[in-house]
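Hi R.,

As promised, here are both runs. First protein below:
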Amino acid sequence: MKRQTLSRFTILGALLVMTAVSARAQSERSKVTNIPFNFIVGQKTLPAGDYTVEPYRRDYDKVWLVQSRDGQTSALVITIPVRFSETREKTELVFHKYGDQHFLAQVSLAGGNSGRELLRPRQEKELAKKMIERQTIVLATGSAGRH
């Protein structure tokens, strides 16, 4: 009887630890970032505000969700992996700016040397073809050392 009780507590303890680790990993991936300008994700324009940017599903990181803090505005976007030579100290959102239009282009998470690059929407490709000058804007939040 003691052995069964001990076994149950061991399993329960392991489940609690795995849940806590999973929740922490999820919170690291879904930091809220204030984006101070309207921006385009895929074919959708999103208003300035607080957003989370994270994989749409935990087990599949090709499709990412960009969602306003209140959950009222969102967009799904297909991404491709990108590697960096150095570990990122902060979570970064990279935007391409053409005139007054901002396009979310890349996401990298604090503490890693990889990120996700968004496929360029048709609208951005057209602006690039017109030789409109492109600026790069990087918004960074959090740090790899914070938990």
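And here is the second one, sequence first, then its structure tokens:
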Amino acid sequence: MEGADGHGCPQRIAVVGTSGSGKTTLASRLAQRLGIPHVELDALHWGPNWTPVPVEIFRERVVQALSGEAWATDGNYSRVRDIVWGRADTVVWLDYSLPVVMGRVVRRTLRRAVRGEELWSGNRERLGEAVFSGDSIVWWAFRTYGRRKREYPTLFSQPEHGHLRVIHLGSPRAAYEWLESLPAMKDM
């Protein structure tokens, strides 16, 4: 795989996939392995009390965060896709089975709620809301799973995304093996 740096390694990587698939974890590990910044789009999008920041501010934050020559980011935000994918050289699609995704999102949500983990802008997931409400992340992952499987191949085939190298990973094992195939920062 030839990267934008001429050394076979991607430099500006967007990790996408259904909620709960492990986008943030993979992007963080990529950033650490490659010695590049990790930009979490959720952190740029959410304000206090689970209130999204205005679109203009979100877009400005993304432009600023992705202004460097190398980064790994994660998220499915269509409102900033033109910015993220326009700057990216690689998109990594975590396309896991529904049972894998649902198992991951349920475990993650329970862990966050039980531990009271702070996410972004002081937000925390509460067990009742995170699992049983209409805004449940578990329900959101289930509802959007099929849409993501349909929309990403179509998006990847559009001419404006022709510059992107698409890495399609169908399992956590495939993701691990791909990550391990990249040169570590000390090897570069």
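A quick note on the second one: The chain has eight helices and seven strands. Let me know what you think.

Best,
J.
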